[in-house]
């Protein structure tokens, strides 16, 4: 006769495990960081361009840019087609510092469009408080009251260097847009690079920005 020991088969007599939080009625709650309001941004404008494999390496100039920490504002001036954007992209690929990149176009003459893209570029490397995105999504007052001061405070609070790139900045013609850029690059402990095609624009930004005057211009 074969006797089946049911107690062993079904675990009877074994020590009962201690109750878990789930047994006591606890429920898992997923806590997420507050999501900022969505703003219209063209992602290609705030992304560092990829360096093409067949691009001419500009090692000497890249090394000068990497050593540019002593210059809070660097202006790169050259005619169209001379490889300014490619040089800056090569620099971004070699430098250990984070890059907030903004490719400018005529639409950025609207200060709100400019600030939305600048904030998106900065948020990619340094998270921006949701309140700034809310002000950008539903502006109720002037950008000078609700957005620019908060962004400059954010930049001023950084304890490590970053690089702000304004590529094709000579496309800005609006005096207010230029004034916004000047205000954003005022914190001199942040390295800025400005790519331009016209020396006249370089003079305009250096006059507007009272703190950061170009120390070195490469043509």
Number of helices: 9
The helical percent reads 25-40%
By secondary-structure content and strand pairing, the structural class works out as alpha/beta
Radius of gyration: 27 Å
What's the CATH superfamily, by name?
A: P-loop containing nucleotide triphosphate hydrolases
Domains, number: 1
CATH topology: Rossmann fold
Give a short account of the largest sheet: 5 strands, parallel
CATH class: Alpha Beta
Average pLDDT value?
76
Strand order of the largest sheet: 2-3-4-1-5
Proportion of strand residues: 5-15%
Tally the beta strands. Answer: 5
The general outline is globular
Q: For the terminal residues, how far apart are their CA atoms? A: 101 Å
Known CATH architecture: 3-Layer(aba) Sandwich
SSE topology string: HHEHEHHHHEHEHE
Low-pLDDT windows of residues? 1-15, 199-203, 210-219
